[in-house]
Design goal:
Length: 100
């Protein structure tokens, strides 16, 4: 027979918190082409041409825009992939993440 206290402990152990989420953002610069930003958004963030264009315009007009919300490990991977891809293609595009 279990006590109330043991039942509470079992319930507490069963609860898991959702992971912290991180915003992955692109930052505006004066050199990266709009077309390249759209390409990055479609390639790494699975955006449609329309979605990518809207996000690109927000980056251009406001200085930055959120591309997606991900758990920490996925957000870190996205940032790394985008930064590597930009460097490979000679663009200074910057990508960063911050806790949501």
């Amino acid at each position: 027979m279990t006590t109330k206290q043991e039942n509470v402990l079992l319930l507490e152990r069963g609860k898991t918190k959702p992971p912290k989420m991180y915003k992955v953002m692109l930052l505006n610069d004066d050199f990266t082409t709009m077309e390249f930003v759209i390409e990055v958004l479609q390639l790494f963030f699975a955006k449609t041409a329309e979605q990518a264009t809207q996000i690109m315009l927000k980056v251009h007009n406001e200085g930055s825009a959120v591309c997606g919300l991900y758990p920490k490990d996925i957000a870190e991977t996205k940032v790394s992939q985008v930064m590597s891809y930009a460097i490979q293609h000679g663009h200074p595009l910057r990508c960063q993440m911050e806790e949501s």
